[in-house]
Amino acid sequence: MLKIGILGGTFDPIHLGHLIPAEYAWNHLGLDRVILIPSATPVHRPQHRPAAGEHRVRMCELAAASLPGFSVSDMEIRRTEPSYTVVTLRALRQKLGNGPSVVLLVGEDNLPTLHTWRQVEEILELATVAILPRPTAGAYDLADLRAALGHRTVDDILARRIPAPLVPISSTQIRACVRSGQPIAGLVPHSVADYIVATRLYRANATE
Question: Does the N-terminal peptide bond of residue 165 adopt cis geometry, omega within 30 degrees of 0?
Answer without folding.
Answer: no
